[in-house]
Design brief:
The protein has twelve helices and no strands. By secondary structure, the chain is mainly α. The protein has helices spanning about 20-25, 30-40, 55-60, 65-75, 90-95, 100-110, 130-135, 140-145, 160-170, 170-180, 195-200, 205-220. The model is unreliable at about 5-10, about 205-210 and about 210-223 (pLDDT under 50). The relative contact order is 0.08. Helix 1 runs parallel beside helix 3. The protein has two domains: about 1-125, Ankyrin repeat-containing domain (Serine Threonine Protein Phosphatase 5, Tetratricopeptide repeat, Alpha Horseshoe); about 150-223, Serine Threonine Protein Phosphatase 5, Tetratricopeptide repeat.
Length: about 220
């Protein structure tokens, strides 16, 4: 994760982050941030050498109030990706800040042009749903699926789908929700898929559901 937040000049036309904003985001100091933004709104748009904006940095430290306050002033911060291809939402889920991630998700859903951010994959191909399942946040995973079912289609660079990861961990509620999505991916590492995982775990309900899914896929492909 790109969490080095020292201030310096950056390439790509991005302005460097003001040290005062860096400190405010790191400490969760909303009052200082608001005062600085009042004098110069564009101060919120600066980034660190790793591409982190002030929302990324505050998210890394889990400062929920700061995050919500800065988004009231500058919504575009939600869509920025750092050098690891991480949005603030992906960072929140990766680091286990589930309540903050839930709030960031709701912010993304409020505006149609921000919804695409929910689908962002990091440099390893993990999206927010992969990370939620990986970290055991089942409630958050269900929220993500409800908000953006297309998250279920993404496959990591390690060839892991959200369904495969959910079945491997015996997350029944999440697996069933994913099974209900017709075009959700089921692939897993080493040529395996979610049916292998369900059979290995002895989960008969999931095994039956996955068998039906594969039968449908096979028939469609044959036609």
């Amino acid at each position: 994760m790109a969490n080095n937040t020292q201030t310096t000049d950056v390439s790509g036309g991005r302005s460097r982050m003001d040290q005062r904003i860096l400190e405010a985001a790191t400490c969760g100091d909303s009052s200082s941030m608001k005062e600085l933004a009042k004098k110069n709104p564009s101060i919120l748009l600066g980034t660190s050498p790793q591409g982190n904006n002030c929302l990324h940095i505050s998210t890394i430290h889990g400062h929920k109030k700061f995050c919500m306050d800065v988004l009231e002033l500058e919504r575009s911060l939600l869509s920025d990706v750092n050098c690891e291809q991480e949005t603030p939402l992906v960072i929140a889920v990766t680091l286990g800040h589930a309540p903050l991630a839930s709030d960031l998700l709701k912010c993304c859903c409020k505006e149609e042009e921000l919804r695409r951010i929910i689908l962002q994959q990091d440099r390893y191909g993990f999206n927010a749903l992969h990370h939620a399942i990986r970290n055991g946040h089942q409630k958050l995973a269900l929220e993500l699926i409800e908000a953006e079912p297309a998250l279920s289609k993404a496959v990591t660079k390690y060839n892991e789908s959200p369904m495969f990861m959910a079945v491997m961990r015996n997350f029944t509620d999440v697996s069933e929700k994913l099974l209900a999505i017709a075009d959700s991916s089921h692939v897993g590492k080493y040529g395996r898929h979610a049916l292998h995982a369900a059979a290995r775990n002895g989960n008969q309900c999931e095994t039956c559901g996955l068998q039906v899914k594969y039968r449908i896929v096979y028939v469609c492909a044959a036609n």
